[in-house]
Design a protein that fits this description.
The termini are far apart. This protein has 336 residues and is an alpha/beta fold. It has one domain: NAD(P)-binding Rossmann-like Domain (Rossmann fold), CATH 3.40.50. It contains 12 helices and 12 strands. It is globular, with a radius of gyration of 19 Å. The strands form 3 sheets. A 7-stranded parallel sheet has the order 3-2-1-4-5-6-10, sandwiched between helices. Helix 5 links the parallel strand 5 and strand 6. It binds nicotinamide-adenine-dinucleotide and thymidine-5'-diphosphate. Nicotinamide-adenine-dinucleotide binds next to helix 1, strand 2, helix 4, strand 5 and strand 7.
Length: 336
């Protein structure tokens, strides 16, 4: 059993949900290494402040000495890598940080894992590495890797490095590939929180292209339980797809959000499509269901209402993240 877990990127949306879960459900000690980029927010972990099993280190996964010192000092025996540049639109503006963190940072973690004889490594990856689907079909773990954006290309490169370390050096490692997450604490550059906060402020809701691109939505806590099941039970060298079995076109989600918020559809504005915009993602997660006894538990409609309520009930958090650098990005991206 793992005693001291290094979680990277734990101040982000999914990593913070995972840390809250592990501290609640287990007696494992957690060290969170996060460089606090624009997406990293210590407020996401305010609830566990003072927990003696939790330690925060501010720094980058690209810093080999720091990662080594952490592994030494805290006697780390497991690593879960959430740290990443995670937004497709930003990767289109500038791919460099995506290569540096998602590929370069992963390499540092893998090298340190070998050197320190880490017992288990998990790479948090994405269904976007499989590219885009047509009208039908689902991504399985053996679908070809065909990333289309700089973001997904960097995640695919990292996945290949993990597999190479298993194959060449015998590292004990697994990879999860999950579909689009939603839930509390998601940074409002992603579809659902952006639309909720814009609608609350009666701002335009920018829909790319015809709004018929499809994503398979999963509640963040279901993703976290899938990551933990994979970490505990997954076979080394294997990939496990995680998905929410809730395929929706973007426009349908946005219209549902407007209904929940009692706001008019006239706020919807169709804008220029994202370059290289993947048409459809959908996940076959039957391998995780049969081998790990995991399944998504949250109903999409209920999860969406509770997510909207979370944003409505946390105006301070929303105000803090929607300021400064965020507005610069927003204006550059949308010009509306
Ligand atoms: P996020 O952008 O909210 O958080 C990323 C975190 O990583 C931030 O706290 C940031 O400060 C930190 N970070 C970035 N660069 C770092 C570095 N060099 N060193 C240390 N920390 C660094 O992202 P998220 O949505 O929570 O995604 C977490 C992981 O899950 C990512 O690997 C992403 O690719 C993957 N994923 C996300 C989704 C999704 O829908 N959000 C779906 C599938 C997979
Ligand atoms: P996003 O939340 O950025 O996730 P991803 O690109 O990783 O799937 O986008 C989800 C979908 O919503 C995607 O098809 C792009 C679309 N989208 C818009 O139409 N408008 C927006 O302002 C954003 C951020 C996304």
């Amino acid at each position: 059993m793992i005693k001291n877990l290094l979680v990277t990127g734990g101040c982000g949306f999914i990593g913070s949900a995972f840390i809250r879960k592990i501290l609640r459900d287990t007696d494992i000690n957690i060290v969170n290494l996060d460089s606090l980029t624009y997406a990293g927010n210590p407020e996401n972990l305010i609830e566990i402040e003072g927990n003696h099993r939790y330690h925060f280190v501010k720094g980058s996964i690209q810093n080999p000495e720091l990662v080594e010192n952490i592994c030494d000092y805290y006697k780390i025996d497991g690593i879960i890598n959430f740290a990443a540049e995670s937004h497709v639109d930003r990767s289109i503006l500038d791919a460099r940080p995506f290569i540096d963190t998602n590929v370069g940072g992963t390499l540092i973690l893998l090298q340190t894992a070998m050197k320190h004889k880490i017992r288990r490594y998990l790479q948090v990856s994405t269904d976007e590495v499989y590219g885009s689907l047509g009208e039908s079909g689902l991504f399985t773990e053996s679908s070809p890797i065909q990333p289309n954006s700089p973001y997904s290309a960097s995640k695919a490169a990292a996945d290949h490095l993990v597999s190479a370390f298993v194959h060449t050096y015998g590292l004990n490692a697994v990879i999860t590939r999950c579909s689009n997450n939603y839930g509390p604490f998601q940074f409002p550059e992603k579809l659902i929180p952006l639309m909720v906060l814009n609608a609350c402020e009666d701002k335009k809701l920018p829909i790319y292209g015809d709004g018929m691109n499809v994503r398979d939505w999963i509640y963040v806590d279901d993703h976290c339980s899938g990551i933990w099941a994979t970490f505990l039970k997954g076979k080394s060298g294997e990939v496990y797809n995680l998905g929410g079995k809730s395929e929706k076109p973007n426009i349908e989600i946005v219209k549902t959000l407007l209904k929940i918020l009692n706001k008019p559809e006239s706020l919807i504005t169709y804008v220029k499509d994202r370059p290289g915009h993947d048409r459809r993602y959908a996940i076959d997660c039957s391998k995780a269901e049969s081998e790990l006894a995991w399944k998504p538990a949250f109903n999409f409609d209920e999860g969406l209402v509770s997510t909207v309520n979370w944003y409505l009930n946390n105006p301070k958090w929303c105000g803090n993240v929607r300021s400064g650098e965020y507005m610069e990005y927003y204006e550059k991206q949308y010009k509306i």
